[in-house]
Amino acid sequence: MVKVGIVGGTGYTGVELLRLLALHEEAEVVAITSRAESGRRVDDLYPNLRGHYELAFSEPDVRQLAACDIVFFATPHNVAMNLVPELLQAGARVIDLSADYRIRDPQLWSRWYGEPHASPEVLRAAVYGLPEVNRSSIAGATLVACPGCYPTSVQLGLIPLLARQVVDPMHLIASSASGVSGAGRQAKVDNLLSEVADSFKAYAVTGHRHLPEIEQGLSDVAGSPVALTFVPHLLPMIRGIHSTLFARRVDTSVDLQALYEDWYADEPFVDVLPEGMYPQTRTVKGANRCQISLQVPQGRDTVVVMSTIDNLVKGASGQAIQNMNIMLGLPEDMGLKQVGLLP
Ligand SMILES: NC(=O)C1=CN([C@@H]2O[C@H](COP(=O)(O)OP(=O)(O)OC[C@H]3O[C@@H](n4cnc5c(N)ncnc54)[C@H](OP(=O)(O)O)[C@@H]3O)[C@@H](O)[C@H]2O)C=CC1
Ligand SMILES: CC(=O)N[C@@H](CCC(=O)OP(=O)(O)O)C(=O)O
Description:
Blueprint: E1 2-7, H1 12-21, E2 27-33, H2 42-45, H3 62-66, E3 70-73, H4 80-89, E4 93-96, H5 106-113, H6 120-123, E5 127-128, H7 131-139, E6 143-145, H8 149-163, E7 167-178, H9 193-196, E8 201-202, H10 210-222, E9 228-234, E10 241-249, H11 256-263, E11 270-272, E12 290-295, E13 302-309, H12 313-328
Parallel strand pairs: 1-2, 1-3, 3-4, 4-6, 5-6, 7-9, 11-12
Antiparallel strand pairs: 7-10, 8-9, 10-13, 12-13
Helix pairs in contact: 1-12, 7-12, 8-10
The structure holds NADPH dihydro-nicotinamide-adenine-dinucleotide phosphate and ligand 2.
NADPH dihydro-nicotinamide-adenine-dinucleotide phosphate binds at residues 7-14, 34-37, 60, 74-77, 79, 97-98, 148-149, 181-182, 184-186, 311-312, 315-316.
GO molecular function: N-acetyl-gamma-glutamyl-phosphate reductase activity; NAD binding; NADP+ binding
Family: Belongs to the NAGSA dehydrogenase family. Type 1 subfamily.
Protein name: N-acetyl-gamma-glutamyl-phosphate reductase
């Protein structure tokens, strides 16, 4: 069995890792940290895990974590970048769900995250964990930076168009909407039921910290700079992201439905829907799956792509386990065969 440690086990991505790993045939969680809940059993805090774990939360301890084969960080940004160098040196392999190692340029990272990067030398060794783009580098990586939730839905939706150069890379638009679990489990007035329910709003319109991450990934695929207008919205539901993506066609000779179907034909977790079927957040809820469809309304020059994921699964913990499977040479879908919950 592969020994797994989780730093930050009380947040939504931490408990989602536990839920998914409970049914993983090759992984055993041997350490899970929380400073606030140290000593408490995980199935006392999260009764859905009763019968699956005997574990209790413990204080983060690098020596204990270094004895694990794989350590997941499900912590806010600015935590992993302080602990990871020592863990790597001790021989553990790390999968970071936070943003600490996602952006290659430490200065750009600082500009969006508001503080200097604590381990820029390690940043250079990190592999961006979007398997549909970087599968072979992930296999040999010691440190994988899992993509953000919005960046997963936006990149998977736009990659075929940019890779085949059928749209203008300097005029991309993403209008994305997320359920409230995307904001994490910490108490905030903005996320109260009475603030969120029965309402819908945009936020961070002048610039969201996922913008540089998305532009970095898309320009790698396009082989040239890209410019994206990204507008996130908060949806009055718990899980799910729906991204509606707009791009201007520069090459109208390509059959776009065929392009997407071919591009993702061998991808176990990307499902291109038949023409006319639209993705919904509820059909990917609980599943490690991105569903995509596209249209060219009125046959004009704008392509509209719709992309949905569960922010906690393909947008975080499911994708993290997909990365673990690739790193360990296990079947990529091990522990990830859940079907979406509907209704
Ligand atoms: N929610 C989502 O949909 C997604 C989240 N992510 C990212 O995953 C990460 C975790 O998110 P989420 O689960 O929502 O977060 P939460 O805020 O809900 O949980 C944070 C966890 O980290 C622990 N933690 C906080 N500070 C420290 C510290 N200094 N040292 C050690 N542990 C610490 C907390 O436990 P304690 O304080 O008790 O130690 C808690 O268990 C974030 O970086 C987030 O951006 C990525 C994709 C999607
Ligand atoms: C709804 C909501 O608040 N979403 C979060 C999404 C960010 C997130 O979860 O962070 P990472 O994906 O970078 O780890 C936000 O906009 O800040």
